[in-house]
Write a structure and sequence with these properties.
Layout: H1 2-17, H2 20-23, H3 26-29, H4 64-74, H5 81-104, H6 126-148, H7 153-177, H8 185-203, E1 210-216, H9 219-226, E2 238-244, H10 252-256, E3 264-273, E4 285-294, H11 304-313, E5 320-326, E6 330-335
Antiparallel strand pairs: 1-2, 2-3, 3-4, 4-5, 5-6
Helix pairs in contact: 6-7, 6-8, 7-8
């Protein structure tokens, strides 16, 4: 067994020395002048050759996702002090405005002692989906802002996630001191998941076809203009969606031949009726929808600005034909 183990270790060392990463380090290779290295191959961990035993091709090296990653490594990024200052001032202004809003609505009652509580009862836990969506949006929007200030995309996404988690944690801590609320670990868990979901999509690009979206009914704007107390908490006039682009399962022969309109997706929606943080959810019920959805990112426009704009717009579920499947069936020519 010892000899067998030594042989395995020896073969492993040879494979490591023969990898492309060592081929780029001339100082290291100078120690082994007799070792002949192969040219760097177009090989990724999850893409093997045809002769491979497993032949995994989840993320082909020539995919659009890989090309975007290569552009990120080639392009040089430098933080712009002026833009970073503008970003900091704007961010501070937005956070201050939100704090004033929360202080005059959710937290306007006298402060109480800190406590833990599960506070999803008033919305039949639809608020948990809201936390996923909001944290997800904050991460992506913040990342785009950091990129605008000159931060490279990978770090910008990390800073965006940190910004999102810090902000959502600030909300939860303040909820913990509010008389009618509490620090909810369920909210924190969904906050973290929503904030890191862009990282999961980055590592598993096929999940870029699965996205969280939000829509609202037109009357919501009028009602909230008259009463802003539950502006961000009125789930009766909101619908949250899980959008899935069929490209995730379609064969390459179909996608390459453009036999399917890649901007057309399908979405599962959830809304709640007769629920409020004021009146509770005694008579509340949940509605479920199936709808077409528009993958805005697949629309024309390849400039950096348009790509980022489309990414932000894609967080909204634009009106589309839909059907309510529960608690009863209703067809909608256009559902908002």
């Amino acid at each position: 067994m010892k000899i067998k183990s030594l042989l395995i270790i020896f073969v492993f060392v040879l494979l490591v020395l023969n990898s492309s990463s060592f081929a780029e380090n001339k100082n290291f290779l100078s120690v082994y002048p007799k070792l002949k290295l192969k040219e760097k191959s177009n090989f990724s961990i999850l893409e093997t050759t045809k002769s491979s035993k497993y032949n995994l091709k989840f993320f082909p090296s020539d995919s659009s996702v890989s090309k975007e990653r290569k552009k990120e490594t080639i392009k040089k990024y430098k933080v712009d002090p002026l833009r970073m200052t503008i970003l900091g001032v704007a961010g501070a202004g937005i956070l201050t405005s939100m704090h004033i809003y929360y202080s005059n609505t959710w937290w306007k009652d006298q402060r109480d002692y800190f406590k833990f509580a599960q506070d999803g009862y008033y919305a039949r836990n639809m608020d948990k989906i809201s936390h996923i969506y909001t944290a997800n949006f904050f991460t992506e929007a913040s990342a785009i802002a950091y990129e605008w200030a000159g931060v490279n995309p990978k770090k910008a996404l990390l800073y965006g996630a940190i910004t999102s988690i810090v902000y959502e944690t600030y909300i939860e801590i303040n909820d913990g001191f509010a008389p009618n609320w509490g620090f909810d670990w369920g909210d924190m868990g969904t906050n973290i998941f929503g904030a890191v979901y862009p990282f999961i999509q980055r590592e598993a690009p096929f999940l870029e076809n699965v996205n969280f979206k939000w829509s609202f009914k037109p009357e919501w704007i009028k009602k909230k203009a008259e009463n802003a107390d539950d502006l961000l908490d009125d789930y009766t006039n909101m619908t949250f969606w899980l959008s899935v682009n069929p490209e995730i399962v379609l064969p390459k022969s179909v996608t390459k031949a453009k036999l399917y309109p890649n901007f057309l997706a399908l979405a599962l929606g959830m809304s709640v009726k007769n629920a409020s943080h004021r009146t509770g959810s005694t008579y509340a019920y949940t509605e479920w929808f199936l709808s077409f959805d528009w993958d805005i990112r697949k629309l024309p426009g390849d400039s950096d600005f348009l790509k980022k704009l489309k990414k932000i717009l894609n967080f909204y579920h634009f009106p589309a034909p839909a059907v309510r499947v529960s608690p009863s069936g209703i067809w909608y020519g256009l559902y908002f």
